[in-house]
Structures are given as C-alpha cells and as structure tokens.
C-alpha cells in the first residue's frame, strides 16, 4: 500500500472526525510504517452513533423490512466484498500482520460467508408453533433494537462481521467499534456496504478506545439493546458490570487456554502438523489456540522432539510473502507481554526447547517478531500454564491416563475450546462429553460450521452465538397464544 489510508467514523450517512478532532495512528507491525490516521473517538461520538442507530431502527425501514429484502441487500454487500477481496486482504495483512495466505484464503472469504449465511438463515430457520386443542401458540422473533458490537484485533473483520451479520440479518441496527490496533478494514467494509445498498444509519462505525472514551456509551447507554463483545476476559468483566446497570443483555466471547491432547494411538502425521497450526497459526494470537499441549507420557519424548523440530522450521517473516507461516505480533506492548511469560516460565522451572527470544536480525528487527516457542518442564499449576499468553508459546504437559488428561484439561479458569488426537473414537466421545469447553475438535482443529453454538465456559465466555443461538440473542423472542 503506497497511499496513506485515513479512516473516519461512519455515523448515520456521514463520515466524520472525532468530535474534538483527536486522531491516533495505525502502523504496520511488520516494519512500523505509518498506514493511516484514525479518529480517536470520544464518548460524544459513541452517543452520536447510538442516536443514529436508534433513529434508523425506530424509523425503519430496516427493522420492518421483509427478511427476504434484507437478505438481498446483505448478499449484495457480500458480492461487493468478494469483488474487493484482494484489496481487503492486503489491508488486513498490513494493519494486523496476519499472513496474506490467511487473509486472502480464509478470513476475508469468511467475512462474505458470515453475511450470506445469516442473510439466508433468517428465512431458512425453523419456526415454532404448538397446536394444543383449541389453542395455537407460536413464537415471533422481532429484532432486539440497537446492537453495540465491540471487536478485537486478532481477526478484525472476520470477528466484526460474526457480530454484524446476524445483528443486521435479524433486523437490528449496529454501532461497531473495532479494535484500535486494526481499524482499517472496518472502515473499508462500511464503505463497501453503503456502496452495495445498505441504508445509512443501519451500520455505524466509531473508532477509538475503551473505558471512558468512545466505547463507554456503547456499554452504558440505555438506548442500546444488546452488546456483543469479543476480547479479553478482563475487558469482558468491565463490560458486564457496565451493562448490568441497565439490564442490557451481553454476549461475551473472551479468552482461552485450550488443551490439545495427544494420545499414544494418535496418527502423528496428522497430530503434529495440526498441533503446530493450533498454536502457531494466526501468529499465535488465536483465542482458540491449543496452548496447553498434553502428551501421553509413553510418546511424550518422541512427540515433543518432532514438534519442536518442526516448530523451529516454520517461516517467520513478512506477512505479505505467501510463503510466510507466521507474521509479527500486533504491537510492542504485546511482544513484551509474550516474552515476559517466557521469562516467567523459566523462573517457574520451565525449559525452552526452541524460540524464547525476540527475532532481532536485519529482516525482523523493524517488526514485532517472536519465534515459535516450546516450553517443557512445567506443571498445570504454573502461571504459564494457567494464564492466556496469546502468543506463539506452547506449554507441554504430560499425562498417563485418560482420567488424568481430563482432570488437567478441566483444571483451568478458561473453557473455550479443546482438541484431542486419538484413533480410539469411544475414548474421544467419552472425553468430549466431559470436557469443560464450548467447542471440542477430534482429530482436527479450527473447523467451523456457523450453525453450531460458539462460545465458552468459565471466564472464556457468556452465551453462545451461531445459527439459532444468534437468533436468540439478537431478537426478542415473543410467545403468542390464540384461542381458535
Ligand atoms: P481487549 O479486551 O483488550 O479489547 C477488545 C475490544 O474491547 C477492543 O475494541 C477494545 O478497544 C475494547 N475495549 C477495551 N476496554 C473496553 C471497555 N472498558 N469498554 C468497552 N470496550 C472496551 O482484547 P484484545 O487485546 O483486542 O483481543 C485479544 C483478546 O480477545 C484475547 O483474550 C483473546 O482470547 C480474545 N478473543 C476471543 C475470541 C473468542 O471468540 N472467544 C476471539 C478472538 C479474540
């Protein structure tokens, strides 16, 4: 990208700066180059966006439009995204450091898929009707109203549209606040959506930070009917506290510390590459990542040697290069946090098998590069094994029996996801039934069917989204009973 990309708030039909004119910069984590400036939104900006979303909801036509017509517009938006797939992928990769392979072939296509899936879901979903003698009862699903959508930086547009798509499809209007680290694709998405026919005011985008700034009203204003948040568990608690004052329902998708269990009968030709992807894919910054690797002791030495050797071979570098497996971390602060955990691991008795130091050679020193890092010698009681690092750092633990594996897995404050590799499917089903997590993968990783519930237990989440679960959250289900 040669030209600077300056973002603006989208409030109603207007592209606006922050109410006090303040801006912040967004930079390429690969080399620190300036990508653009962004409005540093104020609480007044958040309120203005809610006002715009409120009038668009109350005055229509979006909220009262036939679902088929909304679906037609959302399909047109998806088509426009497809037409700009390469541009959006490049922008996502520049802004957040995600590899171009992932942006182009996974995340940006998923953005359009999110829209198409929920556009169609509204008319495809089964509806409930209960005839009972001379009574007939049925359920209506009117839209909830104004939705605040607050999203993180690690899969920016994919996660933003995981919220926007169902919210809009069910007839709500939205105020989106993207993460300040990666604001650019949200801006471009909004431009493309308007161009494709989304009525003004239906989607509003405000940029900036949490707390008292622009995100404040998004979680505390009485005119907001739903809050959908993806981000850290610590921020989630603040949002839940703020929302509780108005009884505003919150769907929160938060952090993870998922177990990846390798049994001695696993097909290692599948388990090794999948496990590498499960922790080092997405530059190690994936909520679902298998960051606690539990290996059965009978194969632990062999597996870990192979895993660490393959990890050391992964290409870490410019995310714009299609051969790169891992790009940079998002920012200096995050790199310091990740490295801090590696130092902590060593002080807790851990041994670093590979990685463990920032990459500082000529091709990496301008960016926030950290290598795939594998640590052994810790217990599940260590802070390294209990806290979310959100970086390319794998903690290896051993176990002897299925019961032990399950006990270690479930001994975590998090409960987002997990995966296991075994050829014994009886065992796999037994484990899945007792696993404390929102998603369990067996002999695979990261597959997502959007009809399934997505979310977490413990401090990983509150509520579920996806298919009918999104309908329940983004509508206000109403029971109607008529005497015939
Ligand atoms: P974060 O919690 O720092 O920020 C997320 C969003 O919340 C940002 O837009 C931020 O500006 C906003 N925010 C911050 N403070 C706020 C406040 N007080 N009120 C309202 N909004 C506020 O998270 P992050 O660093 O951007 O993202 C990484 C985290 O997200 C990790 O913990 C990761 O596991 C989690 N995550 C979870 C999922 C999931 O689906 N469960 C997916 C991706 C990321």
From TrEMBL:
Q: Which GO terms describe its molecular function?
A: aminomuconate-semialdehyde dehydrogenase activity
What InterPro entries does the database record attribute to this sequence?
Ald_DH/histidinol_DH, Ald_DH_C, Ald_DH_CS_GLU, Ald_DH_N, Aldehyde_DH_dom
Sorted keywords for this record are: Oxidoreductase
Boundaries of every Aldehyde dehydrogenase domain copy = 15-480
Q: What PROSITE patterns does the entry give?
A: ALDEHYDE_DEHYDR_GLU (PS00687)
Q: Which domain of life is it from?
A: Bacteria
Name the Enzyme Commission number(s) assigned to this protein: 1.2.1.32, 1.2.1.85
Active-site residues, Swiss-Prot/TrEMBL: 253
Q: What protein family is recorded? A: Belongs to the aldehyde dehydrogenase family.
Q: What is this protein called?
A: Aminomuconate-semialdehyde/2-hydroxymuconate-6-semialdehyde dehydrogenase
Originating species: Flexivirga oryzae
